[in-house]
Amino acid sequence: MTWSADGLIAVTGASGRLGSRLAFRLAAEGAHQRLVVRDPERAPRLDDGRPLPECEVVQSAGYADHAAMRAAFEGTRTAFLVSARESTDRVAEHVAAIDAAVEAGVERIVYVSFVGAAPDATFTFARDHFHTEEHLRHAGVRWTVLRDNLYHQALASFVGPDGVIRGPAGDGRVASVSHDDVADVATAVLLDENPTRHDGVVYDVTGPEAATLTEVAARLTLATGRQITYHAESVSEAYASRAHLGASAVELAGWVSSYEAIATGEMAHVSHDVERLVGRPARSLTQWLDDYPREWAHLLPPEDRREP
Predict the structure, then answer these.
(1) Residue 114, strand partner residues
(2) In this structure, is residue 114 part of a structural domain?
(3) Number of domains composing the chain
(4) 88, 250 in Cβ contact below 8 A?
(5) 47: domain CATH number?
(6) What whole-number percentage of the chain has pLDDT above 90?
(7) Could you tell me if 216 and 55 are in contact, meaning their C-beta atoms sit under 8 angstroms apart?
(8) Which residue, 48, 62, 226, 264, is the most exposed by fewest CB within 10 angstroms?
């Protein structure tokens, strides 16, 4: 068994797209991990239904559940912390999770943040990440921050039922990244034989290129065989076109400002941290489309869709 140099690893959000990928990678390396999930039935398992080897599964109702989170972190030395669902209490939830980890004796936290995290970031959720990072920096633990760009999967979700991506992104560019690359970077950081070299380091985890949403639409068109286009909205149009969705004001502001941040260039930076840490180039959107057809099968013409 290959142990992390920092001992037992707690993986939060282990049933999600990123956490589950990380859990499988750590298991493949023989690392001892504790998977923190809301629903144990959704914890990642092997194809035959067996639990992942060297894994414990613990349940928590969320980061605000202080007693459960402290118990989940008890006995672990390293914690991988994914961000909570977008809400008005999001930063408070992150702070609570960090504090629970510190109280439980966790010595190192690897936190998943967002590119361009800053108090004045255009993308409102990137502001949340900045405030979380600030708390982490002063929490008295060793820390590493992975600042991800938008996920390739998120770009596919931008497409409306009519085949149009709408938003105030203008001609700005986004260096979207795959969940796999983020999981690979996290694995490299968590299992490094010399983990202290990542202490106090912020990594930008991006794809290998930055594309406009017009270019994204063209690549989706090529993959799906369906005409997909981008329509540049004004900010007021973006709010109006989403008003019927019933989302909270916080969610709406996050959705709209993500496009605005693309327009300002705050998501355009292409980092080579994936290649430096993993030893291969990051996967492009085109590669992701080839690798994960089920992730964008909803975009296919109805007659071309297949049951999974």
Answers:
(1) 148
(2) yes
(3) 1
(4) yes
(5) 3.40.50.720
(6) 94
(7) no
(8) 48
Please spell the DSSP secondary structure of 189-253, one letter per residue: HHT-SSGGGGTTEEEEE--S--EEHHHHHHHHHHHHSS--EEEE--HHHHHHHHGGG---HHHHH
pLDDT of residue 234: 98
Q: How much is the pLDDT for 7?
A: 83
Please tell me the number of Cα atoms within 13 Å of 30 on its side-chain side: 4
Residue 142 lies in a domain: yes
Check residue 2 and give its pLDDT: 46
Q: How far is C-alpha 79 from the geometric centre of its chain's CA atoms?
A: 16
What gap in Å lies between CA 102 and CA 66, rounded to an integer?
Answer: 12
- State the residue range of the domain holding 18: 9-148+179-205
Residue 51 placed within a domain = yes
**Nearest CA among 136, 171, 160, 142 for reference residue 262:** 171
pLDDT tens, residue by residue, 135-162: 999 999 999 999 999 999 999 999 999 9
- Model confidence pLDDT, tens digit, residues 286-303: 999 999 999 999 999 876
Mean pLDDT for the chain overall: 95
Q: Which residue has the tokens 């930055």?
A: 210
> Does 3 score more than 70 pLDDT?
no
Residue 137 identity: R
Is 308 a domain residue?
no
Say which amino acid occupies 70.
R
State residue 5's pLDDT score: 61
